[in-house]
Amino acid sequence: MNTLNTPTRKPDLPPGPAAHLWGLNHLQAMKPDYLGFVQGLQRAHPDIAHVRVFTEHITHVFHPDWVRAILVDQAAHLIRWERATEVFSISMGQSVLVTEGAKWQRQRRMLQPGFTPKRVAGYAELMVSAAQQALDALTAQDPGQSVNMDELMTDMTLDVILRALFGSHQVTHARPVSEAIQTLSHSGISEMFKPFSWPLWMPLPAVRKVRHARSTLNNIIQQHIQTQQSNAHDDGQDLLTMLRLARDPEHPDQGLSAQELHDQTMVMFQAGHETSATAMTWWSGLIARHPEVAERIHAEVDTVLQGQAPTPSTLQQLPWLQASLKEAMRLYPPAAVLMTRRACQPISVGPWTVPQGHLIAFTPYVIQRDARWFEAPDAFRPERFLPGAPDIPRGTWLAFGTGPRVCIGQHFAMLEMGLIAAMMLQRFKLQWPAGAAWPAGDLAVTLRPATPIRLHLQPRGPR
Ligand code: HEM
C-alpha cells in the first residue's frame, strides 16, 4: 500500500505519510532503498514532509529557500544526528566532521586556512603527477581492454590524498587503505539503521572486519605522524605539517592535541578521497555516454592546454569541463544525503516550526533532481552550469552542503577533479561498451554505482 499521500494526524506538523506500527512501515521502505523512499516522499510533498519512526520525528526539507533558511541562517540551533556522529566517530574519532559547538568551532578555525583556494593551489603539482603516473600506466595497456573506472579513480584520488597528507607516496599503502575505507563506509551506513553498535572488542565477524579496517588506517597514520615528528621538519607543504603547525587564531599558543591531530588526519583520509573518486567515476561514465559533451571538452582542453599539463589557472579557462563536473555531481552527488540534523531549539521553516528535539533531513540527490529548478532533471546537461546560463537558484545544488558546515575540502576536490578530468580527456576518448546497462546507485556513505562502470579508453594520440 502506498502510504505517502495519507495525511498525518497532527495539524501543526508539516504533512506526511501516516506511520503504521510506530513507523515500522517507513523503516521497512527506507532500508532497502532510502533514496527511492525520499523521492516518493518529495513527489507527494514537494517542499517539506514529516515522517515518524518510533520515537523520532523527521522533517524532510526539499524547498531550497528553506534548506538555506535552516542550514545557513539557523545553523547555530542544530547539531548532527547523534547516531550518525556516533557511527562516524568509530572510524574518525573526535574530528571536525563530528564535533559540535565550541570544540567544532575551534577545530574548523584551525583547519580552514589549510583549505583556501590559494593554499590548495599548492597541491596542484602533486595532483598532476599522481594523475600522470596512473594515466601513463593505462597508456601502456592494451586499448581494447575495458577499465574499471571506480578502481582507477579510487587509486588516483587515494594517491593524491596520500601525497597531500604526508608529502610522500607509499604505493604499498594504497590497496589496504582503500579496502579499509570501503569496509568502514559500508558498515557505516548499515549501522545507522541500528539503535546501537557492538563494542569493537566483540568477537563477531562484522565487528572484527571494522576493527581490522580501523587499525589498518590507525597504524598508517600513526606511522606517518611519528616519522614526521622524528624528522622534525616544519617546512613541508603537506597537510599533516599544516595540521601539526595549526594554531587557534583566538588562542595562538594552542595547537591540536596528539589525539586531535590523529583524528583530523583520519577524517581527511576518509572524507578526502572516496567522495572525489565516486564523483569522478560517475563523471567518466556520463562523459562516455554523451559523446557530444565529450567532443566539446576535448576541443576546449586541446585549444587551451595545447598539450601542456593543466594548472589551477588554466582550469579556469575550461568552462565545459568545470560544468560537466558540477552536472555529474548534480545527478550523482557523492554525499547523496547530508548528515541529518537535530533541532536544539524550535526551527522556523516557512509557515512551519520544527519543534526542539525533532530531526531534519536534507537529501541533495532528491533536491538536485527537482523539475522546478532543473528542466529535464534526469538529463545530463552541463550547459546549465556554463557562464551566462540562467541562474541556478541558491540551495538547489548541494553537492558540498551549505552553511558553516559546508565541505572544508571543496576547493581541494574541485581542483583535483578538474586536473584529473582534463588530463584524462587530453589523452583518451572515453567509450561506453556497446550494450552495457547504466548502473543504479548504491548508497553506502557515498553514492556509488551498484555495478562497476567499465569503459574503453581509446588513446587520442599527440596533439
Ligand atoms: C567531490 C568531493 C567531495 C564531496 C562531494 C564532499 C561533500 C561534503 C559534504 C556534502 C559535506 C557536508 C556534510 C553535511 O553538511 O552533513 C562535507 C563535509 C566535509 N568534508 Fe567534504 N566532500 C568532498 C571532498 C572532501 C575533501 C577532499 C576533504 C578533505 C581533504 C573533505 C573534508 C570534509 C570535512 C572535514 C567535512 C566536515 C566539515 C565540518 O563539519 O565542518 N571533503 N563534504
Key terms:
463 residues; alpha+beta; Cytochrome p450; five-stranded mixed beta sheet; three-stranded antiparallel beta sheet; 18 helices; 49% helix; binds protoporphyrin IX containing FE
Structural overview:
The structure is a single chain. The chain is α+β, with helices and mostly antiparallel strands and 463 residues long. It has a domain at 93-332 and 401-459: Cytochrome P450 (Cytochrome p450, Orthogonal Bundle), CATH 1.10.630. It is built from 18 helices and 12 strands. The strands form 4 sheets. It has a 5-stranded mixed beta sheet. Strands 4-12-9 form a 3-stranded antiparallel beta sheet. Strands 6-7 form a two-stranded antiparallel ribbon. The protein is globular and about 65 Å long. The structure holds protoporphyrin IX containing FE. Protoporphyrin IX containing FE binds at residues 96-97, 108, 267-268, 271-272, 275-276, 279, 334-335, 338-339, 399-401, 405, 407-409, 412-413. Residues 96-97, 108, 267-268, 271-272, 275-276, 279, 334-335, 338-339, 399-401, 405, 407-409, 412-413 line the site of protoporphyrin IX containing FE.
